[in-house]
User: Fold this.
Amino acid sequence: MTIRVHLPQTTEGKAELAKATAAVHAGIIINKINELEITKEKKQALLDAVSDRIAKRKG
Assistant:
């Protein structure tokens, strides 16, 4: 089986791909947190912690 990936060549295309990838990753994180058997408050605290960590990495 051969898989070919055609990545965007333009700056605009690369930015669009980055946004789409980020949205997918965010959705996965949110779904995983929602699957946890913890209170809504703990879920929110965990989501806030993840968000803070991402913000720190961005600078």
About this structure: The CA atoms of residues 10 and 39 lie 44 Å apart. The helical segments are 11-35, 40-58.
